[in-house]
Amino acid sequence: MKELVVHAATVFMGFFAIMNPIANIPIFLSLTSDDDRQTVKSIAFRSVLFAFVIVSVFAISGKLIFDLFGITLYALRITGGVLVFLIGFHMLQGNSTHHKTKQKAYSPEQQQAALSVAVSPLAMPILAGPGTIATAMNFATTGGFDQTIITIVAFGLLCIITYVLFLFGSKLVKAVGPSALNVVTKMMGLILAVIGTQMLIEGLAEAYKTVFV
């Protein structure tokens, strides 16, 4: 039981660091700045729903994907570790690649176009990017059924938190200011870099044992 609790906490913190919902608030606000309240709610809900579905599919079918493409767990850990480390490194540097401007939606076609940002870039790659997917597959495939369920539930909980933060993001930004959000981003970046390094070390160690021992 203790191991499951530790695993759940590790999974949640890993997802929280890599998704960084607090730092994603300014991105969400910039993408929805010209939309009405109802559209903003729809975009927020769709983005977390799509992200949850994407990560859940990879978490559940991770082992099947491994067998289908002949992927080894240590290869995933090495690749995922590099991806997670790079994401954390860029967050530490204060870099962001998610910028987009759009016009307010008036017609049904424009309304649908506005809602499309929920899928891209919000759901993927901002919320469920390569690092998140690799992390989910890594956590889910390291154990059995219980670990997979914990991974999905932890990500679902984080999606709910992200949805709430998106809805009240403008108030939060006004309350804490952009400087505080920048500090949080750098802290999450440091955590991500450490998680990525740990995944890389474990992957290299397992690869060495498999290939050379």
Short structural description:
This protein is mainly α and 213 residues long.
Structure, explained:
The chain has one domain (2-212). The protein is built from ten helices and no strands. It has helices at 2-19, 25-31, 37-60, 62-69, 73-93, 108-115, 119-127, 130-141, 145-167, 169-212. Helix 5 runs antiparallel to helix 10. It starts with a helix and ends with a helix. Residues 96-105 have low confidence and may be disordered.
Strand content: under 5%
Q: Given the C-alpha coordinates, what overall shape results?
A: globular
Unreliable runs: 96-105
Proportion in helices:
over 70%
Describe the main β-sheet briefly: none
Radius of gyration: 18 Å
> What sequence of helices (H) and strands (E) makes up the elements?
HHHHHHHHHH
Whole-number tally of structural domains? 1
Query: What is the number of strand segments?
Result: 0
**Cα-to-Cα separation, first versus last residue:** 33 Å
Figure out the total of helices.
10
Average pLDDT number:
82
Given helix and strand content, the structural type is: mainly alpha
Question: Which terms would index this structure?
Answer:
213 residues; mainly alpha; globular
Secondary-structure blueprint of this entry?
Layout (H helix, E strand, L loop, with lengths): L1 H18 L5 H7 L5 H24 L1 H8 L3 H21 L14 H8 L3 H9 L2 H12 L3 H23 L1 H44 L1
Helix pairs in contact: 1-8, 1-9, 1-10, 3-4, 3-7, 3-8, 3-9, 5-8, 5-10, 8-9
